[in-house]
Specification:
By secondary structure, the protein is an all-beta fold. It has no helices and 20 strands. It is found in: Nucleus, Nucleolus.
């Protein structure tokens, strides 16, 4: 038997494709999927994987198209970085270094230069809680840049990507956790909280499971543990 000192892992594969919802490009020609430490780009016509966007060193937790350029996409990871890709050519354009692990992100064409992320922080008691942060992307020509300008939008939120949604025209953002719906209005810089009881008179479970905002109307839809949908 020979010595194993020179053996090293060169590639890991077999990661889930449904860990996060896939992203379909504006022309419907490509499908972007978070898969382990990379982002896979599939052709919707041939079903072939045409690119593996590699660069992250830990789990990729979100993929979003760049709202200002439909040929680019952002990816975030628990490695504490946000990366901008040219997914057509499979090229890494820029890496933003952030001191927090990123569990999900949200983009909006109405908030240029800002990406909303969910990251864990330590509270006053030393426990880990998740916050929704506004990350202001620095304007720099460097390929790797530190992004240190962050502001807290909402405290103590869920780490589930389905628990946050941006509202009409980017005017507000909605967040759910357990039995609470919180809506933050950017112009007023004020949030409003709505609470539900654990169950209702008919025995239905009211716990929130997901939220989404209507793109054109001031309407918020929430899903609940009993399978029902509420409109707010």
């Amino acid at each position: 038997m020979g010595e194993h000192a020179g053996i090293r892992v060169v590639h890991r594969s077999g990661s889930k494709l449904n860990f996060r919802p896939p992203v379909i490009t504006n022309d419907s020609k490509f499908l972007l999927c978070a898969s382990g430490e990379c982002v896979k780009v599939f052709s919707t016509s041939t079903e072939e994987c045409i690119h593996n966007l590699r660069g992250h060193t830990d789990l990729v937790t979100g993929v979003h198209l760049n709202p200002c350029n439909h040929l680019q996409a952002y990816s975030c990871s628990t490695d504490g970085t946000l990366r901008l890709w040219d997914f057509m050519d499979g090229i890494l354009i820029k890496t933003y270094l952030i001191k927090y692990k990123i569990y999900s992100m949200y983009t909006s064409a109405y908030h240029k230069g800002v990406i909303f992320i969910i990251a864990p922080v330590q509270d006053s008691k030393g426990s880990e809680v998740f916050q929704l942060l506004a990350l202001h992307l620095p304007q720099s020509g460097d390929q790797m840049v530190e992004a240190s300008q962050l502001s807290v939008v909402l405290e103590d939120v869920s780490s589930n990507p389905a628990a946050v949604s941006l509202g009409r025209g980017g005017e507000y953002i909605a967040s759910i956790k357990c039995l609470q719906l919180e809506v933050f209005f950017f112009k007023k810089q004020k949030s409003y909280r709505l609470f539900l009881k654990v169950d209702n008179k008919k025995g239905a479970k009211n716990t929130f499971t997901c939220v989404t905002c209507h793109p054109k109307d001031d309407c918020i839809a929430t899903g609940h543990e009993d399978g029902k949908i509420r409109l707010w």
